[in-house]
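Hi Y.,

Following your request, here is the sequence exactly as I used it, all 349 residues.
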Amino acid sequence: MRVDHDLAFILQFENVAWFEDGVVKILDRRIYPMEISYVTCNNYQEVVKAIQDMVTQSGGPYLAASMGMVMAGHEAKVKNFNRQETIAYIKQAADDIANARPTTSSRMRNIVDASYQRAVSDKWENHDELIALLKEYAIEEVSGRYARIEKMGEQLASKVPKGGTVMTQCFAETIVGMLCRHLKLQGKEDVKFITPETRPYLQGARLTASVINDMGFDVHVITDNMPGYILKEKKVDLFTSASDMITLAGHVINKIGTFQIAMLAHYYGIPYFVTGAPSTVHKNLDTVEIEERNHDDVLNHLGTKATMDGVKAYYPAFDITPPQFCSGVITEKGIFSPFDLKSYFEKDM
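Below is the corresponding structure, written out as tokens. Let me know if you'd prefer a different format.
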């Protein structure tokens, strides 16, 4: 049984990113659920652009990255490259895909480098074997990632009281599905969710709420300026988010807006649990680059201009939550204090 067997529509592997028949199809999360449409990538450079353009986000780019490497193998076949040319092309694809978005480049690098190692191995004699090898790895990688995330979902579900209320932030992707799966297994089908909309792409309203609804749970969407009031008024029991990066010093880098909700939760005495593993690359904030995205995204609302000509905007894609506002970091190895993440690397599975 596949690890995604009972998860919501947009968490199924084929509905994230998938190589088949010479192309990579990526579900366009920018317009889901209003429209179910796929962006078709005919070369790995188009996969890079799809990642940059937020066609997929959260955990989606990681499967898109490994499927983009499969695409590069297919291109080498079409171009009739010899072995040396093929390896060089795969290496270039790895470099380009890894750097599609700066904030997550270190995690992306791990995935594409693992693909590249298969390309330089002696496990293939022709391009068809290489393509099969790269796709096999892509499926193994996403399956292993989902399995690790399921352990996080189980632990996070154990922190939610029966009949409780959970506030989320942005789209924590697979963790949302795994949380819902284990709430059901723990007999907590009566848990309610509140999710801020997450402007400007509305990932919370469109993606998180859709997954929770698909999984059979009660979910309410709120605007991004409501959490301060809603946390207390609706008696929220727990705030949670995923993470784009967690430094070894315990700083959580996640979708812009996470910091303010974490700070408000702290004010009300509501625990904030973040899911994700600490980074070995980013020991502190000195090496973290906060991505500035296109300011026009803020000046428009789902493609409709909402401001007067001449008005400007800021759009940092992420913010930084200090460790003092985080109750615990939920990993596949257990729950760790954000002030003692070195213990994560010392603990065996």
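The longest helix spans residues 127-158.

Thanks again,
Q.
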